[in-house]
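Hi,

Apologies if this is the wrong queue. I'm a grad student, and the batch job for CpXC domain-containing protein from Nocardioides conyzicola produced an output file that my downstream script rejects. I'm not sure whether the problem is my script or the file. Here is the sequence I used:
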Amino acid sequence: MEVMTMTEVLLTCTRCEDEIAVDMDRAILRMDHEPRAAAELLFCCPTCRRPGLRHVVGELLTLLLLVGVQPLRLSEPTLPAADRSTGLSPLTRDDLLAWHEQLSYVHNVSPWEP
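Support response: The file is valid. Your script probably expects a header line. Output copied below for reference.
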């Protein structure tokens, strides 16, 4: 049997400035993938029904993690690793120079129209 815990955070709405209780089961605690002592709490205000965002740091963040709030961890977008199976070598400075020379005859580019 799974035990459900309900955690609420008392704060002031950033939109309507009412004091509200945010149910953590209906909010998102967003953290960076790299460990930091800061996060963002994304929620919908029960009073004005508008989205809100609060920065969470220090003791509150520690308490939320200790009571079992599962954060959404995001990392910076990165380019995929080069696919070595294609046999293509990385683009070099000489490749860019050759491409530039091939385009030397192009004086302007007009947009494509259907």
